[in-house]
Amino acid sequence: MALVTPLSPDHDLETRELAEFFNETLGFCPNSVLTMQRRPAISKAFINLNKAVMANEGRVTSALKRMIAWVSSNSTGCRYCQAHAIRAAERYGAEQEQLDNIWEYRTHPAFSEAERAALDFSLAASLVPNAVNADIKKRLYEYWDEGEIVEMLGVISLFGYLNRWNDSMGTDIEDGAVESGDLYLGKHGWESGKHDGSEY
Predict the structure, then answer these.
(1) For residue 129, is the peptide bond before it cis, meaning its omega torsion is within 30 degrees of 0?
(2) Angle at 10 between CA 9 and CA 12, to 5 degrees
């Protein structure tokens, strides 16, 4: 059971309309948003930020953005966000080999050097203390322009918020996210942990 109980999707009509975005992304409205709407200004601001961050302005694809989100969430240990990110990567057309081998992105041939640079950036930017350095910058600039780097850091920062929110909240994970987590991450020990409704 989560720290705070999610409200009905019909609790705030503006949030409900904005949250239709997640039907494409995940196939359901996340419990995190249903909890945020206890203060509708937060739920609405979060959804609008999410939409802005995930918009494609350059060559950073929707699938890569979700893999960036997965690396960030994996580094912080948020199992809720790991499952959501891998599910969204699947729904946005990530290659099957990438989904199956996301843990080995640094060495697996399914990932390009440009993708590795982006995913290493996600890992370095998500660590505490932060590990972004001159080498990360050099590698990013080999493949990506400044606008694309801003898009990537937008994803990393958005998931920094989500990782804190969902791990602290112990947000109950939805069935669809559990399916994706089990399918792609279970072989490496992923489980729902505190997000299965049994703790708190």
Answers:
(1) yes
(2) 100
Average pLDDT across each block of 10 residues of the chain; the chain has 200 residues. List them in order.
91 92 93 96 96 96 98 96 96 95 96 98 97 98 98 98 97 95 92 80
3-state secondary structure 13-48: HHHHHHCCHHHHHCCCCCHHHHHHCCCHHHHHHHHH
Count Cβ atoms below 10 Å from residue 24 Cβ, excluding itself.
11
Task: Give residue 35's pLDDT.
Answer: 96
Q: Phi and psi (nearest 5°) for 66?
A: -75, -30
Backbone angles phi and psi of 18, in degrees to 5: -65, -35
- Which are the contacts of 134, defined by CB distance < 8 A and separation ≥ 6? none
DSSP 145: -
Reference 117, options 102, 136, 104; nearest CA is: 136
What integer pLDDT is reported at residue 199 of this predicted model?
Answer: 58
Distance CA 181, CA 147 (A): 31
Residue 102 DSSP class? G
**What pTM was computed for the model?**
0.95
Contact 3, 167 (CB under 8 A): no
What pLDDT is recorded for position 1?
72
Amino acid making up residue 103: W
